[in-house]
Write a structure and sequence with these properties.
This protein is an alpha/beta fold. It has four helices and ten strands. About 20% of the residues lie in helices and about 30% in strands.
Amino acid sequence: MKASVFVGVSLDGFMARTNDELDFLPPGGGEPHGYDEFVATVDALVIGRRTFDTVLAFDPWPYGSKPVFVLSSRALPPAPAGAVVEHLAGAPEDIASQLAARGIRHIYVDGGITIQRFLQAGLIQRLIVTRVPVLIGTGIPLFGPLQHDIILRHVETRQYASGLVQSEYVIAS
C-alpha cells in the first residue's frame, strides 16, 4: 500500500499553532496548488484525533465521501452527515495491514503525530510540503525526533503567485 502526505506548513515548519489553530494558512487553501488533484488519487485518509477535531469545524466537510480513518484511543464525536468516518487504533504497521486487507491501495496520511508515526515506521513513500510565507515562531512541528535519518529524493518544487512554495519528495531509503 502507498502512503502519501500533502501538508501546508509555515516557513518555520509548523503545521498548526500550539492551540491547533490554522489561521496562518491561506483561507480555503489559497490559490489552487494541486490539492484536489492529489486527493483524487487516494482511496482513503488516515488522520489523527486532533486533526479530526479540527476539521469537524470546517464547513463543508473537506473530504466528501472519501473514507476517513481516525486514529484515537478515545471514542469519536459524531461525524457530519454524509461523511464516511471510522475509528481505528493501533500501531501504524497494523493500521496499514488492516487497510490493505480491505483493498485500500493509497492513503493520505495527515496530522502531526500521525505523520511522524507513519514516517518512523517507514510507511510513507511520498511527501508534498507546501510552505506558506509566514513565520509563526512556535507550534506543532511537521517533523519530530527521528531514530535515524530518512533520506529523501527531490521530485519537484513549484512556486505560486501568492508566495506558496511546494516541494515534492519520495522516500529514498
